[in-house]
Amino acid sequence: MKVLVTGSAGHLGEALVRTLRDLQYEVVSIDILPSPFTTHVGSIADPAFVNRCMEGIQTVFHAATLHKPHVGTHSRQDFIDTNITGTLNLLEASITARVQRFIFTSTTSVFGDALVPPAGDPAAWITEAVTPVPKNIYGVTKAAAEDLCQLFHRNQGLACIVLRTSRFFPEEDDHKDARDTYTDENLKANEYLSRRVDIEDAVSAHLLAAECAQQIGFGKYIISATTPFLPEHLAALRTDAPKVLAGLFPDYAAVYAQYGWKFFPGIDRVYVNDKARKELGWQPKYDFRYILEQLRSGDGIRSPLAKIIGAKGYHAEGFSEGPYPVR
User: Fold this and answer.
1) Which of 37, 140, 52 is nearest to 89 (CA)?
2) Which residues form the NAD-dependent epimerase/dehydratase domain (predicted)?
3) Residue 141 covered by a domain
4) Structural domain contains residue 327
5) Which domain holds residue 193?
6) What single-letter DSSP state applies at residue 112?
7) Angle of helix 137-156 relative to helix 86-96, nearest 10 degrees?
8) What is the pLDDT of the chain when averaged over all its residues?
9) pLDDT (tens digit per residue) in 36-70
10) Rounded Cα distance, 132 and 218, in Å
11) CB 115 within 8 A of CB 267
């Protein structure tokens, strides 16, 4: 099968290209940056370039995007050009080339302000039924691109699956107070309980989405590690999350103590992947229980694929206040 991967110089794009090549797919991969995993260098905002790359393609994995860390360095028009116009160009070219399935990598950032409940309220239980309230141009453009996918399914019959991925980047956190309070691995281990997914699991979700796309037609799915929390935990999670965690994993504190780690005092959201597990048959491997096993054995929290890909950063330049610019 011949497939197209966009954003092939990025974390997920590289992961998809590596995996698809290993599975003997014929992979056409595009990015604005050259890389060992990019076969065609160019912009998805250029419709002529996109059309040239689409010949013979049966499945599109659209991972190219401007991300949240670019909000401080790129204009709103840049986000529209890449995230909306680029997606539109790919969808139009897919119809012309008779592509069978289109897998769009979106983000849980589309939920925006819906992710943070008012002070005193329980943590938010985030499923696909939650109405997005985007809070920046990144969220707005990704939500608009999702709507374009739905439009092309409805009006052109293109099978489109939207995957709202949670955090899988290996870079440091974009909040200085978090970086100052926790080590990077401590932060990421904590996030597997409510808002992180390993890139290996993200890739498997994309492959399963492609298998199911024509049967489903159109669907949106949250792609995040399976949480052990339940709705009845939400009130306590906001005020005393370590107590809730200790009730579920009595041994976690001893494992964390070996590393000098600590859990968050409270969390404000829990991403729920039930729909993806049920409808896509997705079985993510890297959940908090598995992370604890990795820590006990001294293997670290990252999958082999995550270790191979490593950190790429989002900008060519550095910033005095940390890994990301602050406006």
Assistant:
1) 52
2) 3-175
3) yes
4) no
5) 2-309
6) B
7) 20
8) 94
9) 999 999 999 999 999 999 999 999 999 999 877 76
10) 18
11) no
Q: Which two tokens stand for residue 267?
A: 């969390």
C-alpha 161/C-alpha 173 separation (Å) is 28
Question: Is residue 326 a part of any domain in this protein?
Answer: no
In this structure, the strands spanning 101-107 and 59-62 are parallel
Residue 313 confidence (pLDDT):
59
Per-residue pLDDT band for 99 (boundaries 50, 70, 90) equals very high
The CATH number that applies at residue 65 is 3.40.50.720
Closest to 126 in 3D by CA, of 240, 233, 268? 268
Number of domains in the chain: 1
- What pLDDT, on a 0 to 100 scale, did the predictor assign at position 327? 46
CA atoms within 13 A on the CB side of 190: 23
Residue 90: how many other CB atoms lie within 10 Å:
28
Tokens of 26: 């014929």
β-partners of residue 2 are: 26
pLDDT band at 312 (very low <50, low <70, confident <90, very high): low
* Pairwise CA distance, residues 224 & 179, whole Å: 22
Distance of CA 298 to the CA centre of its chain: 26
Q: Which residues contact 197 (CB under 8 A, 6 or more apart)?
A: 165, 166, 167, 168, 205, 223, 224, 225, 284, 286
Look up residue 248 and give its two tokens: 């579920």
pLDDT digits 0-9 by tens, 177-198: 888 999 999 999 999 999 999 9
pLDDT band for position 74 (cuts 50, 70, 90) = confident
* DSSP conformation letters of 68-101: GGGTTTS-HHHHIIIIIIHHHHHHHHHHHTT-SE
User: Which of 71-80, 226-235, 301-310 shows the lowest per-residue confidence on average (mean pLDDT)?
Assistant: 71-80
Confirm whether 233 is domain-assigned: yes
